[in-house]
Structure formats: C-alpha cells, structure tokens
C-alpha cells in the first residue's frame, strides 16, 4: 500500500464521483477506478458501494476514512515539525554563562530569542569560564558566554560585548566619596578576587593593572561568582575590581567608581563547538549576532 492510494481514496470519498475525483487528482478515471479496486483487494473489504448512478462509502469505508484522515493530519504535523526543526525553530538549547553576563547582554539575548523562536526550550546554567569549556567538550551545553581568552582550537568564538573595569568599594569606605579612583590608592587594601583558573584572562588583566600602578594586590578573600564578590565588598571584607556591568546588580552597601588610569576593555565572548551543525544552535548564534549590533 502506497501513500498515493490513500490520497486517491480520500479524494474519492470527498467527491463520491469518479470523474470529479480523477479531475482533482489529475489522472484519468479508469486508472483511478483500478487503483481503488487494488486498495480494496489489499485491505480485504469494500470501501465503496458502486452503481451506475452513485458512489457511496460502505460502513467500513466510512470508518477507514476517519482513520486515514488522522494519518494525513499526523503526516502534515510531522512535516511541519521537521521543517521547523530544520530551521532551528524547535527543540532544546542548553546555554552556559558567566555570572556577569546576567547583568549585561544575557537578558536581551534571551528575550529576543524567545520572541523569535518560541518553540525552542532554553535550559540555562550559570558556570565559570573553565566549567563552560569542560561542559562544551562533553556536550552538556551547546553555547556559552564566557571571558576570553580561549586557547582550545576545537571551539569557535566571537566577541559580542566589551566593557570597562570599575572599582567596587564598601559604601562606608574612605574613598567612596571620590568621583573616580587612582589604583595606587588601593595598594594597601584587602582585595576580593576569584581564583585564576576560573577566568585566567580577566584575572591576569586585573593583576596587571595593579602591577602597572606599582603594587601587587593583597588577595585576602576568594569567591567564585561575581555576585558573591560584590556581597563580600558590601560586608566590608575588602575591595574588588569588576566589570562595569556589575553596577546593574544594585547591591545595597556597595559603590562603584571609575578607574583614573586608562584600562583595556574586557571582552565577553559567545562560544560553541566548531563541529556544531545543529540548526537550533545556528539560529541562536544568528540572533545573538543581530542583537549584539545594538550594544
């Protein structure tokens, strides 16, 4: 039994006239009649009562028609799902991100993607840069947002956002009333910083800035997430140098100050496996690129 036999049957059931059905199907009437007889022979029951004046569905034919219409409906749905999946409009996407991304580009990216591709379910994981590289290698995430540099050549990446560094001070700090901070003023301050392994590029940049100002920062407390670093600053455990977008966190007890010295921008990159072929991932990358033009 072929799919075209079922189409012939449904068309004849709708028209109840061999001539009109043949015309709709763009075939001659004798081949249509022959195909219907072959279908009935294969099924083992009659689909139509035929007379010289009329064609009517048998009781079995009527029931069979309902089932075949369901088959065609499911087939159409399957085609639609396949087309949407091939365009990256259905499925699931697992995204990793460093905590600071939640305060700059991530909300816009997610809002835009969900608006453009509502059929894709997003799964989000807050991960450090080194964790994202590990999860990408094992397939646990599809796309990441992390801090550069990335040395592994198994990944593709693009810089999508750049921002300055700022000093985060406790609200009651002696320097809190200054409009900006000379890093040399922090030479004797206790610093709160993340372990280097978590984001070597950003870590090295912070250390280099301090060394250019004539001192090595005295790191008295380490924390993994940026939110934790800011919370420790608010608790007056020390000072920190952080990406400027952390201001959007609006943590009570912390003030942010510009750095007097000209400092390089810190980059946030989008990363994915170079071998990635998923249409859903490609659609996500496309949307992020479009959104990044507004930043």
From TrEMBL:
Gene3D superfamilies in alphabetical order: Periplasmic binding protein-like II, Winged helix-like DNA-binding domain superfamily/Winged helix DNA-binding domain
Keywords on record: DNA-binding, Transcription, Transcription regulation
Transcription regulation is among the record's keywords: yes
Residue ranges of every copy of the HTH lysR-type domain listed in the record: 1-58
InterPro entries to which the protein is assigned, alphabetical: LysR_HTH_N, LysR_subst-bd, WH-like_DNA-bd_sf, WH_DNA-bd_sf
Descriptive protein name: LysR family transcriptional regulator
Pfam families: HTH_1, LysR_substrate
Family of this protein: Belongs to the LysR transcriptional regulatory family.
GO molecular function: DNA binding; DNA-binding transcription factor activity
Gene Ontology CC: one annotated term: protein-DNA complex
């Amino acid at each position: 039994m072929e799919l075209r036999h079922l189409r012939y049957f449904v068309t004849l059931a709708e028209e109840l006239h061999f001539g009109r059905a043949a015309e709709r199907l763009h075939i001659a009437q004798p081949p249509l009649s022959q195909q219907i007889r072959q279908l009935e022979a294969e099924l083992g029951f009659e689909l139509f009562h035929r007379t010289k004046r009329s064609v009517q569905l048998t009781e079995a034919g009527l029931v069979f028609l309902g089932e075949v219409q369901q088959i065609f409906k499911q087939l159409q749905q399957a085609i639609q799902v396949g087309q949407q999946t091939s365009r990256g409009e259905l499925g699931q996407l697992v995204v990793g991100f460093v905590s600071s991304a939640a305060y700059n580009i991530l909300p816009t990216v997610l809002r835009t993607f969900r608006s453009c591709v509502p059929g894709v379910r997003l799964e989000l994981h807050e991960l450090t840069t080194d964790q994202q590289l590990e999860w990408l290698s094992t397939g646990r995430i599809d796309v990441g947002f992390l801090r550069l540099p990335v040395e592994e050549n198994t990944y593709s990446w693009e810089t999508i956002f750049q921002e300055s560094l700022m000093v985060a001070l406790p609200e009651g700090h002696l320097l809190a009333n200054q409009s900006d901070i000379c890093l040399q003023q922090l030479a004797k301050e206790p610093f709160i910083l993340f372990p280097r392994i978590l984001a070597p590029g950003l870590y090295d940049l912070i250390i280099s800035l301090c060394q250019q100002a004539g001192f090595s920062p005295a790191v008295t407390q380490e924390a993994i997430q940026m939110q934790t670093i800011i919370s420790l600053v608010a608790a007056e455990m020390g000072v920190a140098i952080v990406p400027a977008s952390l201001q959007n966190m609006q943590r009570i007890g912390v003030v942010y100050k510009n750095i007097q010295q000209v400092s390089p921008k810190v980059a946030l990159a989008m990363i994915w496996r170079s071998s990635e072929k998923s249409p859903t991932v490609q659609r996500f990358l496309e949307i992020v690129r479009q959104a990044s033009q507004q930043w």
